[in-house]
Design a protein that fits this description.
Shape: globular
CATH architecture: 3-Layer(aba) Sandwich
CATH topology: Rossmann fold
Bound molecules: 5-O-phosphono-beta-D-ribofuranose
Number of helices: 6
EC number: 5.4.99.18
InterPro entries: PurE_ClassI (IPR033747), PurE_dom (IPR000031), PurE_prokaryotes (IPR024694)
Pfam family, one: AIRC
Low-confidence stretches: none
Radius of gyration: 16 Å
Enzyme class: isomerase
Number of strands: 5
Order of helices and strands: EHEHEHEHEHH
Keywords: Isomerase, Lyase, Purine biosynthesis
Largest sheet: 5 strands, parallel
Helix content: 40-55%
Strand order of the largest sheet: 2-1-3-4-5
Amino acid sequence: MNQVAIVMGSISDWPTMQSTAAILTELQIPFCKRIISAHRMPQTLQSFAQQAITEQIDVIIAGAGGAAHLPGMLAANTTRPVIGVPIESHALHGIDSLLSIVQMPAGVPVSTMAIGTAGAKNAALQAASILALQDRALQQRLTDYRAAQTQRSVESEAQLD
Ligand code: RP5
């Protein structure tokens, strides 16, 4: 059973979304990876999102760039939480992706992360926070992850000249 689905609009999104996969793996959250383009594969998008509940996918993380309709259209077809990651596009540096994802109409929410790798990482952590509401062991792993991050920041001070 995959608790999380990482959905991308294109294989070209994978270098960014690998950061999502890495953190989900570290937190021992089972996930699947799919390439489903909102524009090139609209029927697949609809059936995937409509089956998310029966497939026991709890959270969908969707990375897309440019005219990034993927997260919004997934959210339009499911009530599972959708977390959108704006991919850093070449032409407009991801501002296009960000605005496409964040400006959802009332009634169909998408949780929108930062542009690029920071957003991809935070999407995994946001999904973990949602899943941890019902999973004490995961909550502990998430707490440990944060503690290790804090420790690295504290220790980084030693690198100052
Ligand atoms: C979007 O268009 C994808 O999410 C990708 O970020 C962007 C460009 O896709 P490719 O032309 O690289 O396949 O749908």
